[in-house]
């Protein structure tokens, strides 16, 4: 089955798949790529589609998880206490809708709450609340009702609720989880675009787990798949909003695909990043070069795996990631897919070998 970019992004962003519970996104990956290669999974749940071909093992990977939460406790009066799965700025949480996914698969909607401002002192109103001070109201009157009638258990995953929404500006969309459903959609569409082609490599498409809690899934995925080079697809933060100097912007919506050279998790293989730039220029693909002081991607685990794997990170910049409502220009996403696909077609034995030919 082949789904259009917009429909695929809608389905993936609206999926409930927080770290450790990536089943809904994995199901889409399997459905979309099951006819294009041999599927396998590692013990942590990362999924690989071996699309075949002869030559070096070239992987295109995105992580399946989104930032979310887990039920930590249920009070006697039926409110949920929770822990974060991934990085959240708590200012963005209050009054936001979430869904608890129970063990039966039922989804229970709730809202993140704290004490009303009427009951707070002036000092309390001006402080940033910790997650341990918040709770989720699912409408239960007691712990017993929350557990027995609603089916909620400790350890159940909680995801933000936010519909995939077209904006007034053409080609701009708002949704949760563009980090990293743009990467997952990109890996899927790259596999579909190259299906049946004669390539100078063996193509592996991957969806990794638990990136948002420490780049964990990439470690075991690398052991299973043994790639010789990895193209990591991501949904990195944009920096084109108030508070950033526009002269220093490296992630502007509409500016094209990002090519990342550095972040706190990895120094990108410079030859790989330069090859990506060259391919973008050759193909007329708009791109932005990015050097980040903070943040990280699965390249942080992939580049250290096995005997060391050269990686390049391509991204679709998104405003307000790690919140309920992020924004992308879908053209940046399409440019990312085109560049990833063009790179795959270039990565034959000589090109991959050149990435680690040090003398």
Summary keywords:
359 residues, alpha+beta, Aminopeptidase, Elongation Factor Tu (Ef-tu), domain 3, 2 domains, nine-stranded mixed beta sheet, six-stranded antiparallel beta sheet, 10 helices, globular
CATH topology of the largest domain: Aminopeptidase
Query: What is the name of the CATH class of the largest domain?
Result: Alpha Beta
- Rg from alpha-carbon coordinates: 21 Å
Order of helices and strands: HHEEEEEEEHEHEEEHEHEEEHEHEEHH
Q: What's the end-to-end separation, in Å?
A: 45 Å
The named CATH superfamily of the largest domain: Zn peptidases
Helices and strands: which structural class? alpha+beta
pLDDT averaged residue by residue: 96
What is the helical fraction, as a range of percent?
25-40%
The CATH architecture designation of the largest domain is: 3-Layer(aba) Sandwich
Strand residues, percent: 25-35%
Number of structural units classed as domains: 2
| Biggest pleated-sheet summary | 9 strands, mixed
* Overall spatial form: globular
Specify the number of helices: 10
- Would you identify the regions where 5 or more consecutive residues have pLDDT less than 50? none
The total strand number stands at: 18
